[in-house]
Amino acid sequence: MKEQTRILKLNKSGVPQAWVTRQEAATMYVKEQVIWSLGSESLWIFGGVNREGLQSSLQLAPIIACSGDVGKQNFEPLLTNRMLFRRDGQRCMYCGMEFDNRQLTRDHIVPRVQGGKDCWTNVVAACERCNHHKGGRTPEQAGMELLAIPFAPNIFEFMYLDNRQIRGDQMEYLKARFSGQRCWLAA
Ligand SMILES: [Zn+2]
Question: How far is the centre of ligand 1, averaged over its atoms, from the C-alpha of 182 (Å)?
Answer without folding.
Answer: 20
